[in-house]
Amino acid sequence: MIRMRFLSRILCAVPLLLLLSGCISTVVGVAAGTAIVVVATVVTVPIKVGEAVIGAFSDDDDTEDEDCDNDKDAD
């Protein structure tokens, strides 16, 4: 009796899995796409912050160099 139930469950489950394989792959694809976007965002945000910090410090240095050059020209 137990074998009959097990066999009937398998015979019902296999066709359902085959019919739903397209839906399952779509869900997995969307999840993978979302994960890729999250990883890309996590990687690019620190880079952008670092560029902003470096840009802030390098802009100050450039203006000081220009001021020094102007002072030398005035002499």
Walkthrough of the structure:
The protein is an all-alpha fold and 75 residues long. It has one domain. It contains two helices and no strands. It starts with a helix and ends with a helix. The model has no long low-confidence stretch (mean pLDDT 75).
Strand content: under 5%
Q: What can be said about the biggest beta sheet?
A: none
Number of domains: 1
Average pLDDT reading: 75
Query: What structural class results from the helix and strand content?
Result: mainly alpha
Continuous helix count: 2
Helical content (DSSP H or I, runs of 4+): over 70%
Number of strands: 0
The CA-CA distance between the termini, in Å, is 106 Å
Low-pLDDT segments, ≥5 res: none
Looking at the structure, what is the overall shape? rod-shaped
Radius of gyration: 32 Å
Question: Element order, helices and strands?
Answer: HH
What does the secondary structure layout of this molecule look like, with pairings?
Blueprint: H1 2-19, H2 21-74
Label this structure with key terms.
75 residues; mainly alpha; 2 helices; 96% helix
In short:
This protein has 75 residues and is mainly α. It has one domain. It has helices spanning 2-19, 21-74.
